[in-house]
Amino acid sequence: MAERQVITVVGGGVAGLCAAVALRERGHPVTVVERGLGPGRQSCSWYAGGMLAPWCEGETAEEPVVRLGQEAIGWWADRVPGVERRGSLVLAAARDGPELDRFARRTAAQPGVHHLLNDGGIAALEPALAGRFTRALYFPQEAHLDPRAAMAALSRRFCGLGGIIRYRTEADHLPRGLVVDARGFAARDALTDLRGVRGEMLMIRARDVRITRPLRLLHPRHPLYLVPRDPPNQFEGLYMLGATQIESEDRGGVTARGVVDLLNAAYALHPAFAEAEIVETGADLRPAFPDNLPRLRRRGRRLYVNGLFRHGFLLAPACARMLAEVVADPSFIPEIMDEDHRERSPA
Amino acid sequence: MNLYGVDLTARLLLGTAQYPSPAILAEAVRVSETQVVTVCLRREAAGERQGEAFWSLIRSLGVRVLPNTAGCHSVAEAVTTAQMAREVFGTPWIKLEVIGENDTLCPDVFGLVEAARILTEEGFAVFPYTTEDLVVAERLLAAGCRVLMPWGAPIGTARGLNNPYGLRSLRAHFPDVPLIVDAGLGLPSQAARAMELGYDAVLLNTAVAKAGDPVAMARAFGQAVAAGRQAYEADPMEPRDMAAPSTPVLGKAVLG
């Protein structure tokens, strides 16, 4: 019976853990093998923004990201605390007005996903921004979460369901049964069309400015996103800054240029960010295929899920669902499964 | 068109930055029918070979690669980047950018001439990104450049040809030097106009990469460049004030 298959998930980043949960929820005995020390710590999920913003991503991402990403908000909210459904706000400096118009056009996938706010509307949502911007786009259905807290909560849920996670474990000797390979960029030894796309992030603490939902500041050269990172019901002024996307596989620390660009943009959002304390910097590689879309790929008894690019928390739930569907019915070919499905074993 | 001894039939050169994905970039290159793509090393590499995965995607496009020194603000930086580019891509071709002013990304033409001289002496085939200034053009040729690439407008502005008079004058002064309008274009009509002025080719990136449908826009630019060139070769008529009917009017009843 396919339902009883024993499954090992290699890689405890967001793709692996979501897959493990989806499989465990369908009754499979599942063990996650992770080389890192804790939930998500040694994966690029650790540096994620945690924005569940499928419609905003439609600015550059292709249609499947927008559609599949819409599953994410409900999926996470049903399983972990701390999913904030406060929408997102897209801003541009007065001289970059055309950027806002372009963003509005490119993200109008369905009517009503965003609406234009004037200065009064912006101040009503985020009083700290009063008088600073005259126009903004508001995406009311979008949400955000704290990726590290979410990974910890999802791990607890998985173990509560009877799943097993082995940290500090290399996947050298895998037991018999199906293997779900969710190693991210490390899987390039097997997936040669995978590449790393570098991202850089900063965590800052700015108690003088209170922002309650993700902001995106559009800029022709240095776009920025800012995501509030405070624990629930507590104001510490913690924010994550990010957005850089560099075609490089350099894993080195954040560059001076990266820091300057991010902080400059934050300063343009609100001058009080100039006084912020820099709490953490980070850089890592997002695994991506040439079309920047995720893939399921089967080779023998190994099912790969990879290439979530900059959309880990957004696309992991949909990828996990499709992966579980493939496990349940090996003749099923979901849309993100590529040509290698020919190798599907006649189970 | 012959650039440093290489014969090319396509007169559109395409940049490879800022596309939604490498797959879309590859498709844009294919439909544009370009034979030369530019690629930036500096931002992506930080001096190591860390951009290798992306560069091999570029190499796999099957077109000639023109590495560039985009983002360099000094002669030393530009020269070092060019040397690295030669090693990575195995080509002496280099699009030389030395930026002098950060807001407009206006070329530092003094640094440009200096870097062009150094690189030419080292055996590079230099494609200098310059302004439409005639004297700078003279100096670049004296420094060893055999191709000139004046801007249409500042990089990424989509303003088209800011100074058609200057570009026409440059064309008239250097009838035998390959001239390529580089940067500032937003629309295929602007590319066609550059070609109608007698320019040998057009180089652009943002106008395609940042279009809602980069592949469709790449095709449109490819067609506009070809149309503009054909129009130039067809020797267009001069504008005139008096209407000239295309069929004879003499003998028509109304004239009686």
Write up what this structure looks like.
- The complex is a heterodimer of chains A (347) and B (256).
- Chain A is 27% helix and 23% strand.
- Chain A has helices spanning 14-25, 54-57, 63-79, 97-106, 119-125, 147-160, 256-269, 312-328; strands at residues 7-10, 30-33, 51-52, 88-92, 115-118, 135-139, 143-144, 164-166, 178-181, 195-205, 215-218, 224-228, 238-242, 277-288, 295-299, 302-306.
- In chain A, a hairpin with a 2-residue loop joins strand 15 and strand 16.
- With 256 residues, chain B is an alpha/beta fold.
- Helices cover 40% and strands 16% of the residues of chain B.
- Chain B is built from ten helices and twelve strands.
- Chain B has helices at residues 22-32, 42-45, 52-59, 75-89, 109-121, 134-142, 164-173, 188-196, 206-209, 214-233, and strands spanning 2-3, 6-7, 12-15, 36-40, 64-68, 93-96, 99-101, 106-107, 125-130, 149-150, 180-182, 201-204.
- A five-stranded parallel β-sheet of chain B has the order 5-4-3-12-11.
- In chain B, strand 11, helix 8 and strand 12 (201-204) form a beta-alpha-beta unit.
- The model of chain B has no long low-confidence stretch (mean pLDDT 91).
In a nutshell, what does this entry contain?
The complex is a heterodimer of chains A (347) and B (256). Chain A has 347 residues and is an alpha/beta fold.
